[in-house]
Amino acid sequence: MSNITVMKPPEIKFSKKQVDSLNDSNAKINIWEGSVRSGKTYISLYRFIDEVLNSKAPGQFIMLAKTYDTFNRNICKVLEKIVGVHAKYLSGKRELTLFGRTINVIGCDDDSSERKIRGLTSCGAYVDEATIIPESVWKQLISRCAMGGARIFATTNPDSPYHWLKRDYLEGNADVKSFQFRLDDNPCLEEKDKEYLRRQYKGLWYQRFIEGLWVQAEGAIYDCFDKDIHVISHPPTHNADYYILGVDYGTSLACAFVLIGVNRNKYPNMWVESEYYWDSKVKQRQKTDSEYCDDLKAMIAYKPVKAIYVDPSAASFKVELQRHGVTNLYDAKNEVLDGIRMVHQYLDNGTLKICKDCKNLIDEIQGYVWDSKSQKIGKEKPLKQNDHAVDALRYGIFSHFFDKSLNTMSPEDLDRMFRDAMEGNDLPNVFQQPRY
């Protein structure tokens, strides 16, 4: 491996774990795994840059991520920090130029993505968050990187111990080297940063994202939910700055809307003010899209609704809403596990409350459990039963607050917010939330 430390910005230092992984990642498949913000992405990209500069293998380099947005967010920003203007992402072409060399960028959000790399010869590849890449894509990638000394470099947070990556590649595979990272392996994190991160996760998510453990999800999904804490008798006395609406559309199945009030400068910051729930099996009558539109318009009448996040599979209903003059419509983000984690976090830290009249949502939250059969084959997903209101809640919260969450703020940002708030009458966001 060549010496590429000349590219390292002077303010960046490496830990011993990072240096060791940089020097030892010479297997056919090299995987950096462990907790969030542990330095694994930075050092793995540093190693990939070296491969791009020095590889003699034939073919083209490729980089894989769940979506093009996640590639831009997770990878490009780090590359720019390492090499500056020597990295340029051409989003229209799905190409990255790195020191003048063209690298194909591929989004892999489902099994059909395997066709995007079929037939090509690759001299090396980088994979962001390998556990959320479809197994079929990963297997096709291995065949594409089988010739001429091509190597694969990948990062991941832990997942289920039954996940195919853990089972087939991280345990007893002679062609794989893995490097386990924890928060203390990132020399750029101060202790206050680590403590902040530790406070953001509980239970399953803490074990995986902080302790770096491959543990199985068991039992209730929202295990932090407590009716005495999370259910309120009526909406807060302070007004909402605005509302968002989550929509889980159904015809033969139940159709659910949840109306969420938001005021980021008061406590609680968010509350589910009302719900709409129509179960055609119980009511013994299906409603038309037009009837659902009328019901939705009545629900949000005279309220400042900033956004309506509709089940992305409900194309016909969205068209009908537009025909009825309903505006601010958006396809909901349907990253299930990420959405569940965000709702769990808001429940756990006291940000989110639910009004007692939302009986279906309250019942569903308490009965929302992991699918044990899927876990046995390495896949984690909720059991598909009585989940319409909780899906609507997830659609609304994750779609609206993804990338706007406090998780994206640095400790310095949070400290500044706190100081600013102390000069006024109200504390923002988490600073005024009680801990239970």
Could you explain how this protein is built, in words?
The chain is α/β, with parallel strands linked by helices. It has 2 domains: 5-203, Rossmann fold (3-Layer(aba) Sandwich), CATH 3.40.50.300; 227-432, Nucleotidyltransferase, domain 5. Helix content is 35%, strand content 19%. It is built from 16 helices and 15 strands. It has helices at residues 16-24, 40-54, 68-83, 135-144, 164-168, 191-199, 203-209, 227-230, 280-283, 289-300, 315-323, 336-348, 359-367, 372-375, 388-401, 411-422; strands at 29-34, 60-65, 87-90, 95-98, 101-107, 122-127, 151-156, 176-181, 231-232, 242-248, 255-262, 270-278, 305-310, 329-331, 352-355. The protein has an 8-stranded mixed β-sheet, sandwiched between helices. Strands 9-15-12-11-10-13-14 form a 7-stranded mixed β-sheet.
Please state the second-level CATH architecture of the largest domain: 2-Layer Sandwich
Overall mean confidence score, pLDDT: 87
> Counting H and I runs of at least 4 residues, what is the number of helices?
16
Beta-strand level of the residues, as a percent range?
A: 15-25%
**Rg, Cα atoms, Å:** 24 Å
Q: What's the shape?
A: globular
Tell me the count of domains. Answer: 2
Low-confidence stretches: 1-6, 405-436
Going across the biggest sheet, name each strand in turn.
3-4-5-2-6-7-1-8
Sheet of most strands: 8 strands, mixed
Give me the secondary-structure category: alpha/beta
CATH class category label of the largest domain: Alpha Beta
Strand tally, please? 15
The first-to-last residue Cα distance is 52 Å
CATH topology of the largest domain: Nucleotidyltransferase, domain 5
Helix content range of the residues, please?
25-40%
